[in-house]
Known about the structure:
The structure is a single chain. By secondary structure, the protein is of the alpha/beta class. It has a six-stranded parallel beta sheet with strand order 2-1-3-4-5-6, with helices on both faces. The chain starts with 7 loop residues before the first strand and ends with a strand.
Amino acid sequence: MTALTDAYIVVVEDDPNALLVTMDLLRLNGAEYCYASKSVDAALAYAEKLPQVDLFLVDINMPGKSGFELLTAVQANPRLGSARVVAITAGTFAEDVEKARQAGFHGFISKPLKTTVFGSQLQRILAGEAVWDWR
């Protein structure tokens, strides 16, 4: 199990405010190795340069490539394939969550992020648990 303080986390979010909130919450919960990107391609290119990636937190609905395309690329990459990939998105419906589950995401967290539980959600994910907190 990787502790949140030791985890390499890549956040992929096109909304600057949501990105800022996510990065702040990560740091407030002790995460030290947090990297942000506004696009799937940039995130994947940056992830290749890191010593490891433990977790991708990705918005599903972004212009250009979606979170689903990032998931597919991570799954196909031998170096990144062991990373957990979690969807963080707004406007969720049961069918969105089921589509993410079927695609192979390791979890789904709806926005707005819940500040009181975000750290424990991530720790559970890093421990191997699938977290589907979308309501």
